[in-house]
């Protein structure tokens, strides 16, 4: 889902420009079976929990999209409650500021985000319901309204939970990730670059799945911890057909299908992994037939890889800079290749790139 944000202090509908990045720099200087299936009783209601994006999620409502999330609790708690009726039950203040307005090519609204200093953030869409997230990212009230259940949960895992992770002190990158030889490998690039399909191909070659599309990162001394996301990977239909047979995916592993994508159930990671490498996928019509690796020396590539352009407080920007500075000390490379390159070949090239020299 392509998103255009309106940062409150920047007043524009796209990502940050180079000058804005520079201005931001000067302004700023966490087994086994799914925990989502374990139930505890609290105040007479059934609570399902799972740990994703570094958050220990405790929900009053069934969240099938969190099944398979097997990471150990990390201590950052997110309480999810449900409101019946329509979004007006969330009692959102009228003087909130619109900070994101995502629309389809025909102008129809997909979803929007409003911000209020005390109330927090309201994330809502005609086909997705409404989500009221507290300013500290610790409380979430949901109102599904009349939208389909799959749509409701898709927005929850794609936008709302990563936003809560950010509010609770982690940084979120627009990246997929796998774990190889005990270290996380992040795959970054624009939407459609093939991050997910390459990640799945890497898993065929011995890596383990960590996250799809959103990667939550946490500074840990001089290193970065990459936290597991949901145990779902979203691939478009063409890629799914190509990957399915070779990767051994069965129909039972396809969680849901919509007009654009199919969600594939993966084996969830049980713990965070230290980040070891980042690869920027650079597909070009005139790119080489076989992938070429080159150092990614422009710091703005890392800065612009954030998944969230809405939160622009000095504290958040300082954290973003810290995470990018730590990431820059790792192996950071651009993989340049032609648009028609096969995801299997690209995954093989990355795995070989990471293999120890003979």
Protein topology:
Blueprint: H1 18-28, E1 39-42, E2 45-52, E3 55-59, E4 77-82, E5 97-103, E6 109-116, E7 120-125, E8 129-133, E9 139-143, H2 149-167, E10 171-180, E11 183-188, H3 195-204, E12 208-211, E13 214-220, E14 223-227, E15 232-236, H4 237-247, E16 254-257, E17 261-265, E18 273-284, E19 292-295, H5 299-303, H6 314-328, E20 331-338, H7 343-354
Parallel strand pairs: 3-4, 4-9, 11-18, 18-20
Antiparallel strand pairs: 1-2, 2-3, 5-6, 6-7, 7-8, 8-9, 10-11, 10-12, 10-13, 13-14, 14-18, 15-17, 16-17, 19-20
Helix pairs in contact: 1-6, 3-4, 3-7
Q: How would you describe the overall organization of this protein?
A:
- The protein is an alpha+beta fold.
- The protein is built from seven helices and 20 strands.
- The chain has helices spanning 18-28, 149-167, 195-204, 237-247, 299-303, 314-328, 343-354; strands at 39-42, 45-52, 55-59, 77-82, 97-103, 109-116, 120-125, 129-133, 139-143, 171-180, 183-188, 208-211, 214-220, 223-227, 232-236, 254-257, 261-265, 273-284, 292-295, 331-338.
- It has a nine-stranded mixed β-sheet with strand order 1-2-3-4-9-8-7-6-5, covered by helices on one side. A five-stranded mixed barrel has the order 10-11-18-14-13, surrounded by four helices. Strands 15-17-16 form a three-stranded antiparallel β-sheet.
- The protein is globular.
- Residues 1-18 and 24-44 have low confidence and may be disordered.
């Amino acid at each position: 889902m392509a998103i255009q944000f309106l940062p409150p202090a920047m007043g524009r509908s796209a990502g940050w420009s180079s000058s804005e990045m520079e201005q931001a720099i000067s302004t700023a200087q966490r087994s086994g079976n799914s925990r989502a299936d374990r139930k505890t009783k609290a105040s007479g209601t059934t609570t399902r929990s799972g740990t994703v994006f570094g958050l220990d999620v405790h929900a009053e409502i069934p969240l099938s999209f969190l099944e398979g999330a097997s990471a150990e609790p990390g201590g950052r708690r997110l309480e999810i409650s449900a409101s019946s009726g329509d979004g007006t039950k969330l009692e959102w203040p009228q003087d909130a500021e619109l900070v994101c307005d995502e629309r389809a090519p025909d102008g129809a609204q997909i979803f929007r985000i409003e911000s209020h200093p005390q109330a927090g953030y309201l994330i809502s869409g005609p086909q997705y319901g409404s989500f009221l997230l507290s300013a500290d990212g610790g409380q979430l009230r949901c109102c599904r309204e009349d939208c389909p259940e799959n749509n409701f949960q898709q927005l929850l895992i794609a936008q709302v939970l990563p936003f809560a992770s950010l509010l609770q002190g982690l940084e979120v990158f627009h990246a997929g990730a796998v774990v190889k030889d005990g270290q996380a490998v992040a795959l970054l690039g624009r939407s459609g670059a093939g991050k997910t399909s390459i990640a799945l191909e890497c898993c065929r070659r011995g890596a383990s799945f960590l996250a799809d599309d959103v990667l939550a990162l946490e500074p840990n001394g001089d290193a970065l911890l990459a936290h597991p996301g949901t145990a779902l990977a979203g691939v478009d239909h063409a890629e799914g057909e190509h990957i399915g047979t070779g990767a051994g995916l069965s129909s039972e592993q396809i969680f849901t299908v919509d007009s654009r994508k199919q969600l594939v159930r993966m084996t969830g990671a049980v713990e965070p992994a230290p980040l070891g490498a980042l690869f920027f996928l650079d597909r070009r019509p005139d790119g080489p037939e076989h992938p070429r690796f080159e150092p990614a020396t422009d710091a703005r590539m890392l800065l612009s890889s954030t998944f969230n352009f809405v939160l622009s407080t000095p504290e958040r920007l300082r954290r973003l800079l810290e995470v990018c500075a730590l990431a820059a000390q790792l192996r950071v490379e651009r993989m340049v290749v032609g648009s028609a390159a096969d995801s299997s070949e690209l995954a093989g090239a990355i795995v070989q790139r990471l293999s120890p020299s003979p």
